[in-house]
């Protein structure tokens, strides 16, 4: 009787479907695959815009000038005879304290943290397309919450950016008439809109899709785990009943 019970509880007798050789298994649903793709697109768009100095366009000494939060293209230097000349090259500020305003310093930190979070989630989502059991339904929802936080951080950085338009360096580029939320003769660049658009897509679209991204636990795997535990208990009982 005991022997028959053990045989019935043996998980090796469960019919497990054969897997096709060379088939890539995924832990994501079809919606999850779309979520992984959009997550990668939004993360790359926001992060690329963060590093490119094309958030704000103006002019100084007859030369075009552009800014991001911590980078600048074309800047004035003292030449011979103490006259100002424009150096036409792009680069970042020499130090964090050299960033023109406190608002832009905060924007640099907040936006960078948001981009890092979006990139981390996007990397995990892409790995979920190639690895089984990496992303469950609950894990997908947690990753969506992280995307919402990342998008919120980038959006906060975009909201902080206009607070630095009253710094002397920006006013010199914007006709000396710029102020907080007033551009003067300057204009916003495409990178600013790209960063904001990527953050909005991550918060609204990716967060919603993440709720349906992960697969539920497979019933066969759950039954196999239960039967394995039952088998161990039956073997212990059989050992105890033997004289």
From TrEMBL:
> Where in or outside the cell is it found?
Membrane
Q: Does the keyword Membrane apply?
A: yes
Q: Tell me which species this is from.
A: Vicugna pacos (Alpaca)
Q: Identify the keywords attached in UniProt to this record, alphabetized.
A: Membrane, Transmembrane, Transmembrane helix
Bilayer disposition of the protein: Multi-pass membrane protein
**Could you tell me what this protein is called?**
LHFPL tetraspan subfamily member 1 protein
Q: Gene encoding this polypeptide? A: LHFPL1
Membrane-crossing segments per the record: 34-57, 102-130, 142-163, 190-212
GO CC terms for this protein?
Answer: membrane
Reading the lineage from the top rank, the first entry is Eukaryota
Q: What is its main location?
A: membrane
């Amino acid at each position: 009787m005991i022997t028959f019970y053990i045989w019935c509880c043996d998980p090796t007798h469960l019919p497990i479907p054969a897997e096709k050789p060379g088939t890539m298994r995924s832990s994501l649903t079809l919606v999850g695959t779309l979520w992984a793709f959009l997550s990668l697109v939004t993360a790359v768009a926001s992060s690329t815009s963060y590093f490119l100095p094309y958030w704000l366009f103006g002019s100084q000494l007859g030369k075009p000038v552009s800014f991001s939060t911590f980078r600048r293209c074309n800047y004035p230097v003292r030449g011979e005879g103490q006259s100002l000349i424009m150096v036409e090259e792009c680069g970042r500020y020499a130090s964090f304290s050299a960033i023109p305003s406190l608002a832009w310093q905060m924007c640099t930190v907040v936006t960078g943290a948001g981009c890092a979070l979006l990139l981390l989630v996007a990397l995990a989502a892409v790995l979920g397309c190639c690895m089984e059991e990496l992303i469950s339904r609950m894990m997908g929802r947690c990753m969506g919450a992280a995307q919402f936080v990342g998008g919120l951080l980038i959006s906060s950085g975009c909201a902080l950016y206009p607070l630095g338009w009253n710094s002397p360096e920006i006013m010199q580029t914007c006709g000396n008439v710029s102020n907080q939320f007033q551009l003067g003769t300057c204009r916003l660049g495409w990178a600013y809109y790209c960063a904001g658009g990527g953050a909005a897509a991550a918060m609204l679209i990716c967060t919603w899709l993440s709720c349906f991204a992960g697969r539920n636990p497979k019933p066969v795997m759950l039954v196999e785990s239960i039967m394995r535990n039952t088998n161990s208990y039956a073997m212990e009982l059989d050992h105890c009943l033997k004289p």
